[in-house]
Sequence to fold (337 residues):
Amino acid sequence: MTVTFWPWVLTLLSLLAVMLVDLWIVDRGRSREFSMRQAGAWVTFYVLLAVGFGIGMLLVAGSEYSAQFFAGYLTEYSLSVDNLFVFYVIMARFAVPRTNKHMVLLIGIMIALILRGGFIAIGAAALARFEWLFYLFAGFLIWTASGLLRGGGSDEFKENALLRWTRRVMPTTSEYHQQRLTVRTDGRRLLTPMFIVMVAIGSTDLLFALDSIPAIFGLTKEPYLVFTANALALMGLRQLFFLLGGLLERLVYLNKGLAFILAFIGVKLVIEAMHSTGLHQVPAIPIWLSLVVIAATMLVTMMASLVKAHRGGRPHEESRSTLTEGETMTLPYQEHT
Fold:
């Protein structure tokens, strides 16, 4: 598949235009409550946009590349829902005010897009030269899957070294100041908790990029499809966050579903690496089968989680940090003097 310069430019400009319209319509009224109806309409729009792009790929490039896009999109979308779990926990952990959540999600998604774009460029160039990297990617995906099954749940948030260093070194206020990242107090420039939240979101996005890029390269080797699947999966996450709301807590089997998908893609990568070195004894996994397996896994995971929640079983409920209207939380940092 050959994508020349101008289709890349047109795609990037189109995605940027959609995001700007999203920002103009949604954020101009962010002082009001974001209704479920609005969130549902935007999520539907972004899903239909991805479906339309996949159909366009079918008409322009053929069924093989269209199936690769849909398989990649579904995988990235499921991993993006996992992103939302962590965003949810981070915002509860740092007691982010309701009026600031739109901005936190916006910055988080923009950081994710930039990081994944960089990883895609590096990964595509590396895989084109070093086929043994397929084995490395496969091992990483299988290791990640085993970690999810062992209990490395997406409802956990552990401060990384960058966040700990920022909180320890940077002078920070103990209160939010609307959406400002810094404020001047007594002649000193101080960071606000909003800045700390951005560091938490950005550094967490980096870890998610390390997971998602090897996963989608296991489904398609085309950088154009890798990028568009990632971009379309990430766009609309803000609205999805508000649409899902408390449902995020009820997706108790999401980790198991993601673990199966990542392990499946890891095995697929191993088989493709074997074929690239002349070992054709093991049957290849066609892209249509990958698409069916991923879609079926997502469906079963969602249905099983909802059935579990309906029957009253909500494991890990006590371990999740949630805030309801009117509650307060002590911020995990104090103003440096």
